[in-house]
Amino acid sequence: MGRTRRLRGGPPVDTDSTAPPAVRLREAVGEDSPFLVEMLGAAANWSPEREQVSRVHLLADRATARYVEGWPRTGDLGLIAETAQQEPVGAAWLRLFPAEDAGYGFVGPDVPELSLGVVPPWRGRGVGRALLRGLRGLAREAGHQELSLSVERANRARELYLSEGFTTVRADGDADTMALSLHSDFQRPARAPRAVRPTPATQGGCGGPETPRFRRR
Ligand SMILES: CC(C)(COP(=O)(O)OP(=O)(O)OC[C@H]1O[C@@H](n2cnc3c(N)ncnc32)[C@H](O)[C@@H]1OP(=O)(O)O)[C@@H](O)C(=O)NCCC(=O)NCCS
What we know:
Layout: E1 23-27, H1 33-44, H2 55-60, H3 62-65, E2 77-83, E3 88-95, E4 113-118, H4 127-141, E5 146-152, H5 157-163, E6 167-172, E7 175-181
Antiparallel strand pairs: 1-2, 2-3, 3-4, 5-7, 6-7
Bound molecules: coenzyme A.
Keywords: Acyltransferase, Transferase
Organism: Streptomyces tardus
GO molecular function: acyltransferase activity, transferring groups other than amino-acyl groups
């Protein structure tokens, strides 16, 4: 009897991929938590000119840990980009936050917030865009109308988001909250003012230690 090779992780995902042929996308599962933490770190440390935030610090600070804690929770959606050797090279994931625990890119409790990171050797090769497009498809299938995120204006990731159709819905200091409609006929509802007033803990973007989001205590 022939042996079947059991793939680690979630099922593969078809997408209008821009990823290099050596990379495939699959759904993120619980075992991917450590890699999601690594990619959360990549997002936090996007600027090499800043002091890098350690993984320990990211996980000790609930404001950042909440993006990955308990992964996967009901409603979470995530994708891993990995090589043929099953080495993860990037991740994109979505999580919903309630108004009383609004994420940095909070638009509404029904709008999941995006986190995205690619390991340095694989950047600039189409992996980030492929992850974004794949996750957009998963979110649409899950019935979401919109995605949101927070990004610092100086981060080149913002160009990626703009080119994929995200628009700025709010400016928070050096960062923008951006949103993407998943359906062409979607009209963003006129939302009530945010339930929480922005505070240092809720401002910022995918930033570094100089931004309130990652400032050391
Ligand atoms: C931002 C990031 C996820 C993009 O992934 P990527 O695989 O490098 O991006 P792609 O190759 O798919 O390029 C897509 C676009 O991203 C933009 N971009 C952002 N960072 C880039 C980088 N380091 N190198 C090249 N392009 C980058 C460009 O506009 C590019 O479009 P172009 O190819 O037409 O110039 C990745 O660079 C990364 O992990 N950066 C650090 C973490 C981070 O900033 N995360 C987002 C926090 S909000």
